[in-house]
Amino acid sequence: MIRTPLRPLARILKAREQGQNPDAIEAENIRLRHEDDRDRARLRAEGRLLVMGIAFFAAFMVVGLRMGSLAGSVPEEPTAQASGSPIIGQRADIVDRNGRVLATNLDTHSLYAQIPDMVDPAKSARELAAIFPELEEDELLEDFTGSRRFLWIRREISPEQMQAVHDIGDPGLLFGPREMRLYPNGSVAAHILGGATYGREGVNSAEVIGVAGVEKFFDDFLRDPANEGAPLELSIDLTVQAASERVLQGGMMLMSAKGASSVLMDVHTGEIISMVSLPDFDPNDRPRVLTEGDQSDSPLFNRAVQGVYELGSVFKIFTVAQGIELGLINANTMVDTQGPLQWGRFRIRDFHDYGATLSATDVIVKSSNIGTARIALMIGAARQREFLGSLGFLEHTPVEMVEAPTGDPLLPSNWSEISTMTISYGHGLSSSPVHLAAAYSSLLNGGYRVEPTLERQTGPQHGDRVVSETVSATARDMLRAVVDRGTASFGDVEGYAVGGKTGTADKPRPTGGYYDDRTIATFASVFPANDPRYVLIVTLDEPSVEALGEQRRTAGWTAVPVAAEMIRRVAPLLGMRPDVETLTPTGVTLTSN
């Protein structure tokens, strides 16, 4: 830009010639220059104001349009987005059918070391070993003075331990908040609940994940924040579960058994009210899995779900019921029980000699292997397999536990005629107590298939029909007769009309064949038999009791009295009143005054 000089030489000379003051020229030029600068500055300011006005106008238009758009849209909850995958520490409670807590969370702290910040590693190692006896002072000191910068010391500590560590005063020992899984009832329902442990861990939170049982099966539900902390409601009754465990534990010790299991199931809904497996464990301090030996000897092994056994004569009612359903026999049909029954090199015998014939009802009451096998021959292998499949014996149970798929039944590779006969009385096919409970429920509830479940149901869950109502009632009458005058006479509980069937199976050897002095004793019962509500399965592994001067291993002497005591204890807890007949007065004459 060309600027005009403040004192132009031509004008200065001319002004001197005319006798004027040359300084006035400079002053005039300065004034004109300032006015020009002022005008340009005004123009710039006005331009900026115009631009700002347009910008504010546009911004207000955008805001107004957005507000109008929101006002006319469907309301939605705002969602937050964040990078990474944060640790979810919250886990929902597990409760029983009445809302009583089975598993919950407890606020606690973890203990860790920021090793570079430690001021006295030797003292800290010494005092930590005194507070936590399982820690070794030498190992701690090696970690504190090595190349590590971070060390987990304890995943969980009590408030007392936290205070003791705080008193050490080392700034490198720090605490992190977290939640731990707590099972307030100890070992009660241990196999059902399973247990939990920590997954991903941070100093400020830790992920609690299920490792077994319903804790693992429902892990996604229990960890889902969308459920807003809603508890998982199970079908079991805590009071009934605790009473069942106590009775079964006492019975197992009394009968000198190495293990035991029981399943109490609602026959109309399939709900498992209690399920016990002994020996058990405390899920607050879950033991380690066995690395050698037989896993069935571990307390973690769930005998009710994972234990598949030849359950013996409890299967006979299925054979007789199918024979009646097919019209081959009725309850009074006389069946040939002359023995032994020869098939090739195999011989089928009865425990006692029951004579030449028995009625179909007495085949069940007296538990005749020969009579049951002859009925099975009339049914045939194909129809027997189909019927047992309709009761759920050909696949693992759908019960909501991660262990369920490991309880697949053991079926014969060739379902031959001899297999048909032995399976009819409970040999040659191995299944779990939960299988048996579901099958008995399906047969005795009026003939509708039910599946076992650990989830609380709102009403009957009847599936396909497996037998007619008439056959179901006949089967109930037969089972009641077994308790009235058969092999389960010790199972009678006054006021509850118990029906049931005993089963005693020789225990197989790992190398083949069967033990002569080891059995699996089972009692499958229903109560009340005239209007069934519950099925109870009790199984004892290798029971033995001395009675009448002999060692008794059969179910009638071992499993039956244990089941009777269990029914006597839990029936009132289930809200069932005993049906006691009132005696009418005799020899009394009513007279008026």
UniProtKB/TrEMBL annotation:
Domain annotation Penicillin-binding protein transpeptidase: ranges: 262-547
Stored InterPro entries: Beta-lactam/transpept, Beta-lactam/transpept-like, PBP_dimer, PBP_dimer_sf, PCN-bd_Tpept
UniProt keyword DNA damage present: no
Domain Penicillin-binding protein dimerisation: 88-223
Pfam name, any one: PBP_dimer
Residue intervals passing through the bilayer: 49-68
Keywords for the protein's UniProt record, in alphabetical order: Carboxypeptidase, Hydrolase, Membrane, Protease, Transmembrane, Transmembrane helix
Cytoplasm among keywords: no
Name of the protein described by the UniProt record: Penicillin-binding protein 2
